[in-house]
Design a protein that fits this description.
Elements: H1 3-15, H2 19-31, H3 36-56, H4 62-80, E1 93-98, H5 102-117, E2 121-126, H6 131-141, E3 145-149, H7 156-169, E4 176-180, H8 182-185, H9 190-193, E5 198-200, H10 203-217
Parallel strand pairs: 1-2, 1-3, 3-4, 4-5
Helix pairs in contact: 1-2, 1-3, 1-4, 2-4, 3-4, 3-5, 4-5, 5-10, 6-7
């Protein structure tokens, strides 16, 4: 079964709330020894993107969207347990945030799982966290990268305010700020406008961006690149 057919089959199971079939599809991938990262890139993310695209265009009911999103999260959690962390890659400390909605959080979770599997030390706080708490955490732990995912424009004022404040107080001058998610892919130049250092159109590309940036920052004899090349075409 090709990737497109498999994605469509999983999509139908998710919007129907068919938990048994959805788990069976994922289980078959594990039984066939498909690499967990390939499952993320070729199955879970394309299915997530299809759900969100149809919901944004009012081609899916709230009921179907809620069932699909929550069941897909269960599958992502199962797949995450199969990922193996590669300790040979340059290690960076990442604080990840996202918009305060289910779709932003699920997309961010997939990227966070892949970042961790590629050797990064990640703390993921999800959405709905006040900016003062985010900034306090940054000051306390001084991560290498602050990552912010967003799917909807309503998240932007808080993200912009947090970035502006970090630049104003200059509390962590070496921290990199990375942004990603649907809202940035739909507005060219937005990431640069709000002061981000790195950006990506979608969470899987964000994983690649940070991994490659870490590799280029590492000493020459420790650089490891190419592992995430396949993410580049994930959409």
């Amino acid at each position: 079964m090709n990737a497109e057919t498999l994605t469509l089959r999983l999509f139908e199971a998710l919007i129907d709330g068919d938990r048994r079939t959805a788990r069976s599809i994922l289980g078959d991938q594990f039984d066939s020894n498909v690499d967990p990262e390939t499952i993320y890139v070729d199955l879970l993310w394309p299915t997530h993107e299809m759900i969100e695209r149809l919901f944004r265009s009012d081609q899916m009911s709230v009921m179907a969207h809620n069932m699909a999103t929550r069941l897909l999260r269960v599958l992502v959690d199962q797949a995450a347990g199969m990922l193996i962390s590669d300790s040979s890659l340059p290690r960076r400390r990442v604080l990840a945030m996202c918009g305060a909605n289910e779709q932003s959080e699920l997309g961010a979770q997939m990227a966070v799982d892949l970042l961790e599997a590629n050797g990064m030390e990640v703390c993921f706080a999800g959405g709905g966290v006040a900016n003062d708490e985010v900034l306090a955490r940054v000051n306390e732990t001084k991560p290498d990268v602050l990552v912010w995912f967003s799917s909807v424009p309503t998240d932007l004022p808080d993200i912009r305010a947090a970035i502006d404040h970090l630049h104003e107080i200059d509390a962590c001058p070496n921290i990199q700020i990375a942004v990603g998610g649907g809202v940035f892919s739909r507005a060219e130049g937005l990431a640069e406008e709000i002061g981000a250092d790195l950006w990506a159109d979608h969470p899987l590309e964000m994983a690649e961006t940070l991994i490659h940036d870490a590799a280029h920052r590492a000493p020459a004899d420790q650089r490891t690149v190419g592992r995430t090349k396949r993410y580049r075409n994930a959409a």
